[in-house]
Design a protein that fits this description.
By secondary structure, the protein is an alpha/beta fold. It contains nine helices and six strands.
């Protein structure tokens, strides 16, 4: 029985993945990489902010500091998070349903904490979640189970009582190996991994409207 839920943010609660796919390329072009690899966003989406910034420097021989990369990319996406990014369909209805059932929930994300806070506050969901966990608290990111285990502790649930909802294959794999229940959710950016996500996760949701069917 599911007693608590950990939501991913980007691609799960907010419609933001296209922004990240464009900002990676724009940043590299800005720093002299005239033809960024088509798969660059796929490469770095599995990394923490710290790791991806160092990866850009090492792979493309950029003459900048890691701190510069982190700050510049944050600045490039800040406008979108503070003013433009919207919730994905059925988010508020889903949270209402969970509240009615007394099921607690929180968010675990690889996104910059300040940006996650900004978009969630603007969209009216920050005060509804029990916690917001990011690389700031769990610097190893979602390739390691720490962030998910931390979420279960804050929810007061066992791993096998906690549902993780994610659009990214690597995060689903991590959560599943840690003993949590997993649900993949559709996002256009994850289309190449769709069949592997369906085959890996315990459940697959075309949208959050389907969550009520597995609770």
């Amino acid at each position: 029985m599911i007693k608590g839920i950990i939501f991913d943010l980007d691609g799960t609660l907010i419609d933001s993945m296209k922004i990240w796919y464009s900002v990676d390329r724009n940043f590299l072009r800005e720093n002299g990489v005239t033809d960024p690899p088509a798969d660059i966003s796929e490469k770095v989406k599995k990394m923490t902010v710290d790791q991806s910034s160092q990866y850009f420097i090492d792979r493309f021989h950029l003459n900048v500091t890691k701190e510069y990369v982190i700050k510049r990319i944050e600045d490039m996406v800040r406008e979108e998070y503070e003013h433009n990014i919207q919730l994905k369909p059925y988010v508020c209805e889903t949270l209402d349903m969970l509240d009615s059932k007394g099921i607690p929930y929180g968010v675990a994300t690889a996104t910059y904490k300040v940006l996650a806070e900004a978009v969630m506050k603007r969209c009216g969901i920050r005060d509804r979640v029990r916690f917001l966990l990011t690389d700031a608290e769990y610097p190893r990111g979602k390739k390691f189970p720490d962030i998910f285990i931390g979420g279960t502790e804050l929810l007061g649930c066992g791993a096998d009582e906690t549902l993780v909802i994610e659009d990214s294959l690597h995060a689903i794999e991590t959560a599943k190996k840690a003993g949590l229940v997993t649900a993949g959710i559709y996002d256009e950016s994850a289309e190449p991994d769709r069949q592997r996500i369906i085959g890996t996760a315990d459940y697959y949701l075309e949208s959050l409207a389907e969550l009520k069917n597995i609770l």
